Automatic annotation (TrEMBL):
PROSITE patterns given in the database record: HTH_CROC1
Taxonomic superkingdom: Bacteria
One MF annotation (Gene Ontology) recorded for this entry: DNA binding
GO CC annotation terms, alphabetical: cytosol
Region annotated Disordered, chain positions: 1-38
Organism annotation: Polyangium spumosum
Protein name per its UniProtKB record: Helix-turn-helix domain-containing protein
PANTHER family listed in its UniProt record: HTH-TYPE TRANSCRIPTIONAL REGULATOR (PTHR46797), METHYLPHOSPHONATE SYNTHASE (PTHR46797:SF1)
Keyword DNA-binding: yes
Domain HTH cro/C1-type: 55-109
Keyword entries, A-Z: DNA-binding
């Protein structure tokens, strides 16, 4: 007899003490890491850099802080920071939201641009045991 049987509604029933893998999410919650050996193409990295540079340039030209833009576009602040650094993929909905909050057409975010020089910020805190 198998460890799971079909129930009344055709769903797999799991016996007590066993995991139900039928509804397990494909990814764990939290920050996802790219599997070993999988890299982004150079073109994708280049375009993500353009998007980030344009978002930052337009935000600064309008005198907005990251917090203000994140709130206007209804995005998480940390996500917006990763977008500006070109470190995360951006979906169409996010591009439309950012363009709307910045008052530009979405296509403007894809223009070739470079990130401005980063201003020196507060140095990172050193934690004991980690170097």
């Amino acid at each position: 007899m198998s460890s799971s049987t079909r129930g009344v509604h055709g769903r797999a029933e799991v016996r007590r003490g066993q995991r139900n893998t039928a509804y397990r999410p494909l990814f764990r919650r939290g920050r996802q890491r790219r599997p070993a050996g999988v890299t982004r193409s150079a073109r994708v990295v280049e375009v993500l850099g353009y998007i980030g540079a344009n978002v930052r340039r337009l935000r600064l030209s309008r005198g907005l802080t990251q917090e203000q833009l994140a709130e206007a576009a209804e995005l998480d602040l940390r996500f917006l920071q990763r977008v500006e650094r070109g470190q995360t993929n951006v979906g169409v909905a996010v591009i439309v939201a950012l363009a709307g909050a910045l008052g530009v057409p979405p296509g403007r975010l894809f223009r070739k641009a470079t990130l401005p020089e980063a201003k020196p910020g507060r140095p990172r805190k050193r934690t004991q045991g980690w170097r």
